[in-house]
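Quick review question:
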């Protein structure tokens, strides 16, 4: 055989090969659909039995449909309660009701409201400050103010206001709970969307001390407790707490006499205020 013919056919085969590989690489890049990372996370919380009891061909397919909102979070009949709760956390919804969860900052003690115990010049991180005496704010229960929660929010759903308090943008919050998890003061709580009324304080000091550390602290006077039906608001170690099983789903502030205006409503057009 002519040597030239062999070289030409080898070169053209090689060229064609290169052309096809380049085409496949471009198509792969263009048509690539990034898989939602939550599918793998949900998979990890499933027993992996592939029994089909959920109505889907296998655990992977069930996980995909949970993330796409087509399957119920508790739809796996052989999963444990812990597993179902973990899936609810991944999906940012309440495990029992399937309701959307939103982060709520349970503190109003920013730079303007809290007394200072001195100047803190250590590492500007809430966790570090918490371990090294608590930053410069006197309240031992409230927000420290260095915005670690804002830093860990993957969805830009938080910012620090000019009072150095975090603010949650409801529409952007996916309920992932990262902020609540990182906060060393447990000042951020995850609440179902139906919770409309809040007491924005986390301080358990005695009335005398709480008054001294923050002008917005709940002072544990009990006025709100007496303004509602028994059990709707309870006192928990000097701090008023709303019992959401029976109260707090309607944005009505129970008393206008709360001396520190600790109540706040969220997700409601208007606030109806009634006197005790
Ligand atoms: S809410 Fe917690 S994490 Fe966020 S700024 Fe305050 S102390 Fe830091
Ligand atoms: S980290 Fe961001 S998205 Fe996640 S719960 Fe907190 S505010 Fe919402």
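Suggested answer, residue by residue:
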């Amino acid at each position: 055989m002519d040597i030239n013919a062999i070289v030409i056919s080898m070169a053209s085969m090689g060229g064609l090969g290169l052309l096809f590989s380049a085409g496949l690489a471009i198509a792969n890049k263009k048509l690539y659909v990034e898989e939602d990372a939550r599918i793998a996370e949900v998979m990890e919380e499933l027993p992996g039995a592939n029994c089909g009891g959920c109505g889907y061909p296998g655990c992977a397919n069930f996980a995909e449909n949970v993330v796409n909102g087509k399957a119920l979070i508790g739809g796996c009949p052989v999963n444990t309660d812990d597993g179902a709760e973990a899936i609810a956390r991944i999906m940012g919804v309440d495990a029992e009701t399937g309701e959307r969860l939103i982060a709520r900052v349970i503190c109003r003690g920013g730079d303007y409201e809290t007394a200072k115990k001195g100047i803190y010049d250590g590492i500007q991180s809430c966790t570090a400050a918490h371990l090294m005496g608590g930053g410069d704010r006197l309240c031992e229960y409230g927000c420290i103010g260095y915005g670690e929660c804002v830093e860990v929010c993957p969805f830009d759903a938080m910012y620090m206001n000019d009072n150095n308090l975090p603010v949650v943008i409801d529409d952007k919050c996916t309920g992932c709970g990262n902020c609540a998890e990182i906060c060393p003061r447990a000042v951020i709580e995850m609440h179902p969307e139906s919770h409309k009324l809040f007491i924005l304080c986390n301080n358990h000091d005695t009335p005398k001390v709480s008054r001294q550390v923050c002008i917005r602290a709940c002072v544990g006077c009990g006025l709100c407790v007496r303004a509602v039906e028994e059990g709707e608001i309870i006192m928990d170690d000097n701090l008023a707490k709303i019992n959401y099983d029976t109260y707090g789903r309607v944005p009505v502030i129970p008393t206008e006499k709360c001396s520190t205006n600790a109540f706040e409503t969220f997700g409601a057009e208007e606030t109806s205020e009634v006197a005790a």
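Why it works: The first helix runs from residue 3 to 31. The chain has three domains: 37-91, 103-192, 195-276.
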